[in-house]
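**User:** Once you have settled down, spend some time on the protein underneath, comparing sequence with structure tokens, and judge whether sequence predicts the tokens.
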Amino acid sequence: MRRQSNLWRGMTAVFAFLLSFSLLMTQLLLSWSGQVNVFLNVTAPVIEADASTMQYKSDYELSDEGLKQMLADSDKHDVQTMEEGTVLLKNEQAVLPLSSEERSVTLFGRATTDPVYSGNAGGPGMDEARQVNLYSALQAAGFKINDKLFDAYKSSDVARVKAAPDWFIGEVEKSFYTSELQATYQADYNDAAIVMLARDGGEGKDLATSDRDGISYLALHDSEKDLLKMIKDSGKFAKTIVLINSAYAMELGWIEEEEYGVDAALWIGNPGLKGFTGVANVLTGAADPSGRMVDTYAANSLSSPAVSNAGDFKYANDDGHYIVEAEGIYQGYKYYETRYQDTVLGMNNADSSAGAFVNKDNWSYADEMVYTFGYGSSYANFTQELTSLNWDRQAKTVTATVKVTNEGYPEDSAYTGKSKSVVQLYAQLPYEKGQAEKSAIQLIGFGKTGELAAGESEEVTVTVDEYLFATYDVNAENGADPAKKGSYVYDPGEYYFAIGNDSHDALNNVLARKEGAKVQGKLLAADGSIVDGKPENAAAVALESLDNTTYAKSQYTDEVVSNQFDNVDINYFAENTITYLTRSDWNTYPQPYKDIVATDELKAVMYDQKYQKPADAPAYDSFTQGAEVTLKLLDMKDVPFEDDATWNKFLDQLTISELSATIGENFGQPAVKSINKPANKNTDGPSGSQSNYLYGGNQPATFHVVQVVAASTWSHELIAERGKFIAEDCLFSGTSQLWSPGGNLHRSPFSGRNFEYYSEDSILSYLMGATQTEAMQAKGLTAAIKHFVANDQETNRQELSTFMNEQAYRQGPLKGFEGAFTQGGALGTMMSFSRIGGQLAYSDNATMKQVLRNEWGFKGVTITDSVKGNPNIPTVESLVAGTDTFNADTGRASEILKYLASKKDGYVLQELRRANKHFYYSLAKSSLLNGLTDDTEVEGFTPWWETFLKVTNYVLIALTALSAILFIRSGLGRNAKGGK
């Protein structure tokens, strides 16, 4: 009997332990249910739809065969995007493309076996069954590859490291190349050496300004130098071709240095799932690269003025972190080109030592620059002629007509196809000291030709909204409301418009037109050679008087646009703490602003901004909730946002619990039976949907060529196609909201997520974001562009205070997003973890309500980044400031529900209804409606793993109870025996 008792005691303990563990895991997994569903590829059932019930239609049949056809077209798009996004940096004596006889090659660099397909962040899994790597792409193109060296790279245990303090590029040392390996290309595989160099980063990982080797991660390292020299010194290769497999602006001046023997170089960025096929096509001449740089490539990556104040900065008297964007508007080319102009004109201490990184005594454009913004070449020789330019102030547009001619190909070129060219339109605004800052040149629009054969021409018309080059002046009197300060203005003077092969070429054209003989012999190319500029490719338009009225009010809502962000400037809290970079004196080049003291006023903004019920808050019982249902979700499809009566009637039907449930998001929200709203699925990311297709074997959705490569095509057509195919992915995977595209700027070359954002330039981001989101929304996909706004670095990005002046904020980070909302019709946005000044982005009323909704007229839904388990993100304060949903945190729903039950706060209830209106307005214009009819009865959905966990818990409860009973009985029996 004792043995039996011990057995059941032990079994009870085991089952009790298993039950406790199972209950704990159940609670944990349920709290992360959205991520678990993504990991297990669990999707709520999609309502079957035929043609008559498809509100948003795919171009393909939603079936296995339809998916196959869609993927074939999508892959073709990605290959073309890679071809047109590849940037030809150098092509000495037309060594590219390789001729049909040049197919025996050696691949050099460990990255050839371990490419960077994309930086790490949310998005689809890489489908290995469909993936194309460099080796397979070249092999498919008919290349014979040196396998012994390739296999040696694969067997190497060297690997990239993307973590502080040990950042490492992951290249092998010269000792790796034994005499045996070097012998592999002595007699064969030497038609060309194809060298691939890579840099990688990602979410939470800004690149190191000083890595394991003690130099910039973006610099050429000794291991790479040794590799290039070894190839040249071998004397065996007819051609050396370099592929830059990096979404980050590496230091590439070495490409032109003779000691490294580089004959041709291509920037390829990150090619995603299929892009390497496009790279192979460019190498063989099956396609001509027509990409252009979307970032500035400086000789020293540290020379960007933003770098001085990027990274890890901590308050002297507080544990919080901050950055100060002391560069103002002068990010990227707007800094280098403006300083170049002042150097040419001998003004404003432009040639001082401040900010000089190459020749430390005097700043020189030719020393500091390698490839400027917009740079790129082609296998063809193109000429462009500005044939007309008209600034129509009535229509509020600038229209340029440009004749583009393919003048032919070099005699020794193996290329026999057609080529495309990019037309870039820039503006220079009048500037005098004391006015708002203006860069010497700024992009305002672009276009791209079709394919042109040698001798063919095409007339390209570029029409741009004049608003894109209005200047925000914080000191201006607002022409719509003279009582308010700040307005978009046009200062009087000469406005110059120019085309150019890049931003620098356009500026030289402006200077040649504007200054004439004054600059003769002073204009330089990036390499330091003297150029004349083309005054005929620039035009001047005079504006006689100040215009502070045209955009003093929003053109979308009629809201007065005036100063809202005084407290985003750190000087607001402590006067003269920093000096912003100004073109009136280049000695203001920013130094690092370390150990700033957080004033009590700033701390109060950061930590003590508590919700207080307004005095005029509506009464709680003035709202009716849970009214009889007469309007279903489908009924709201065409109801205008402004129809408050109908929307209020719809919202009245929802219970407090149903209203609260929408703000707690976990990769979607559950079904609401009362209004026939199905469970909706949300997911990530800018390079494709983080989901699996519902057809064809449930493979992962396509990982498209990354966004920075797509931007480098400078093609409205391809950006629109990108939006269309990403939306198709979501139709085939049952996704109605996607946290995409990425709209943040490449503030510095080291910003970790540059790969999933468009550019350093806010206007290029504005235009591309508008085009892509419009295409996504057209197929019923809620485009939730991210991370709104000023998510300008990954280091300390959670609750990072980001300080800048209002002009820089409005013309930079905000402008980069604006086009997606005002032109593209985006009905969603994922917000930023960071602070706008000291205020959390989620609870920044000036950004979330005044600009986003009142000025831009945004009607859609806002969603936080993942805030699961983050107690520092306040629920009520964020909700009333304009946050509609909380990503990956269903607990926010119960928090609001409990708050309302205890406080009976009519203002919070009003704001909860507002959030629901945004939520349901976006859903009513999404593919979630597909298949819904008046007769549809929506059912709830429980994932199989939740049922499995519940059954497991019940079984363990039963086994624990049974073993405990048997243990007790065996004990009683033993005691009874003992009593006898």
